[in-house]
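Hello,

Our lab assistant flagged a job as stuck in the queue for most of the afternoon. It eventually completed. Since we weren't sure the result was trustworthy after the delay, we are filing this so someone can double-check. Below is the sequence as submitted and the structure that was eventually returned. Let us know if re-running is recommended.
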Amino acid sequence: MKVHFQKKKIACVIISILVGIAVYIYFVIKAFQFVAMVCGICVSLISFIVLHSILQGQFGVLSVRGNLERAGLVNKKGEPPILLRQYPDQDYEKGTIYEFTNRGIPHEEWLDFREKLEAAFNIFVYKISPGKNRRRVLVHAVPADEGLPKFLEWSPRYLINDDFSLVLGRGLQGLVKIDLAVVPHVLIGGSTGSGKSVLLKNLLMQCVFKGCEVYIADFKGGLDYPRTWWDKTRIVTEPVAFLSKLQAVEKEMRRRIDILREVDQRNWHNYISAGCYWRYSRIIIACDEAAQLLDKTGRTKEEKDVIEQITKYLALFARQGRAVGIHLILATQRPDANVIPGSIKSELDCRICGRADLILSQIVLDNGNAHDQIPKDAQGRFLLGDGGDGVLFQAFWFDDDGWWYV
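-- returned structure --
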């Protein structure tokens, strides 16, 4: 493709020179020798600019039209959109924004053609948004070799040596991380097969390496966790046993509140910074599928009572856990009100969504960005909600059975 583009460029130069010579000869014949050279040079430059804009690689005028027609992105009259301009994306160092006229093509249809646009122009599209008016569409992209990797293997070198930052994966601008000292609780949502369980395990593995006490509620019998996970963490498979663990954590929380009051510290981060880190570890309470834990549908009265108590403790930790180093990480396929009550969900400031339909994206992120930005066949691709358009990243894959040896 690069050689082909160079040939086009050479052709533009040759044609421009020939046009300039023709103009020069014309003015010489007409006896305008004084302006012949100036006009010849100007016409050559203008010809080169025009020809280059028409033929410049896959984003030349003719190439854009042909690629869009081949991709099938045309209106009812068979007319493809027109590329008006392209300019750097200020939010991404290597990103470019391509502004098109939409030619009456609905925004939803542009989103459906995301993958075809990527293939047609050899780019990675991380966002498609409306322009300043309904007649414009903005395609945000980077070159294909600068996009997100489809596979990203975990390595211990990604561990961050600070109070409590965890690495989520790699985004367009490098590693994407969260700091539980700032955003203490995490909600991970996504459709089946999106990779949310792998992401959860990777975060919990990092917590273990940081010396945390990790509690995992897995009511599928613990089959998803090999034996070594049972040695490194505290896994519970029954609601009653989980309730007992939460009651013990609640007592520890009250004790830590008294400690902070005695040493006149406002939160656990300040307490750790004061030099007492070795005494008390942060506590992580995780649930691999919150629906199996908190959904009361079809439960007996006794089971509902246990779930209500579990919900009460989780809501308490969600409200007060940050100050004393207690954190929630909940993963679920559909975190609606029937699964995660508002008293808990409202405190889960860090929202991460994998592949999702529009409704699920709205439930997790309060917007449709995950539906818009994550391809339907993507695995391990997530969007970190940050109040804006979010941060797209590829999560890590790691050896579930041998990570502690690495």
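-- support follow-up --
The delay was a queue issue, not a problem with the job. The result is valid. Residues 53 and 230 are 62 Å apart (CA to CA). The chain has 14 helices and 14 strands.
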